[in-house]
Amino acid sequence: MKPQTHYIPTAAERYPLALLAGLMDFVLIVAGSYVAHWLRFNDWFMLDHYLVATLVVAVVLVSCQMMLGTYLSWRGRHLWGQLGRMFVGWLLALAVVASIAVLLKVAENYSRIWLVSTLAVTLAFVTVFRVSVFLFLRHLRLHGHNLKQVLVVEMENAAAPLRGIFDELPEQGYKVACFMPLGHDEEWYENLRRQVAACGVHEVWLCLPLNQGEAIKCVMYALRHQTVDVRYLPDLGDLPLLNHRISNIGGLYALDISRSPMEGPSRIVKRLEDLVLGALITVLMLPVCAAIAIAIKATSKGPVIFKQYRMGINGRRFKVYKFRSMEVHEEGSGQLTQAHFGDPRITRLGAFLRRTSLDELPQFYNVLQGRMSIVGPRPHALAHNEHYKDMVESYMQRHKVKPGITGWAQVNGFRGETDTLDKMEKRVQHDLWYIDNWSLWLDLKIIALTVWKGFLNAQP
After folding, report:
1. Which domains does the chain have, with CATH numbers?
2. Mind listing the pLDDT tens digit for each residue in 260-315?
3. Closest Cα to residue 136, out of 125, 145, 126?
């Protein structure tokens, strides 16, 4: 058995590049406003009402860019298309700013020359910045850096369009690690899993005819334990699609069939939510945590904090923290017995902590670390993952997002002991629904429901 490694999230996982792009836009907009002020008044000092207007313009512009998705990854997208979307965002922001000025009747308090100059200068700054970043990334990728490794599953001539742009893919941010002709026996599927692991593949592209729906299902089932992104690349250039998510990679259409919704601006919102609410709750709960720690130490022998490895985002392991609610005991290698009603291992204080969910409070430290979220699928013990991943369909897909302290399954009653397969299936169904329908408002609703009815429960 391989030793368990301590998972430390990368900077890109804690603070995605989209966040840096938004912050850079904000800085450039403020800088452009000061330059415009100097050009108009020959003075760098800005009066308070001009400074407020600058901040409002910056917030509106960045918000409009987030709404239009210009902070999403540019990988596989053309520069001019992304710049065009950015310019649309600026026009939308201009309309919003003008509406605010008219509604508040403050337009006469500002120089129109300064406002127009601000928009022109900042647009120039941001455009130069975007083009520079694009050219820099292009240079890196052409020299073999910042590339996503891709495994292509092909059948007959379905991958011919992809082979036609094979030499252009590195410029788009992708590199094909290998091509695999489609097979149908178990040995081929086992070889597919080995190739995904051996090549360090980030994505699997399925270049298959439209009549190979069953083959797509089989490939998805074979990769059910993997957290790689899966794309289907049929020839869909002239086929109109409704209510589907389509990506464009080098001019080719890719139908995303296994992707997490939490990327780009969504990841920024999710991380900010965790940092702000996590820090606030941590500060408020410190006296309670101190009292619980003293009580645990006074009533039973052993450590105050219970640590256990769990599986986090993209299958990476991390240590989860809980207040110890059981007597210290040993279990056999690979064994993990779930707590149950009347479990003699649970202390009297531990029973109260588990019933009120107060034993979960140390996990807010995991949230601030960036290894968990406040809301998300509950992390299961590693032994439970191994047990259920072959029994529950799409079980491992719940690891495409960070695990949470509470979740949609928990506020709907699927918490605590999962002593039957049906309970685990229902929990996974709720977790996958949450991932597919995530929004900030859904998170806030789950947090409110947790406070309202989730802390007190009848679970062991």
Report:
1. 17-142 (no CATH), 148-258 (3.40.50.720), 265-454 (no CATH)
2. 767 777 788 899 999 999 999 999 999 999 999 999 988 888 889 988 899 988 88
3. 145
